[in-house]
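Hey,
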Amino acid sequence: MNRWRLITLAGVVLVIAVGYVRWSLSDHGHSQAQRRPVAVPVLSETARAGAQAFALHCAGCHGPDAGGTAAGPPLVDPIYRSAHHADASFLLAVRRGVPAHHWRFGDMPSVPAVNADDLASIIRYVREVQKANGIE
């Protein structure tokens, strides 16, 4: 490979790397002013129990309808669709916490007070609300 092609390739890699870093540090348009209202559907029995557990353990940061707050990202967002964040991702987030990577809200701490049954119902609640808002 000649020297100019190598310099060009290095420049392209640098531009991509800088773009990725800027993207990863951004909030991807999730500023409070840009969030849309969240439609909460008629919930299944499990999801209703999850809504209560969510209100107790999660709403302080993620909002009462999982639409986010200044303290935590919205879970009703395409980034958290099941194809990108499987249910196990939510389970691990609650059990282990999560370092900030999709948001500017800081690290998510673990939530040890959430038991396994509540966690399953919380996940069901989030998934039903996501579906009602066109996120699957």
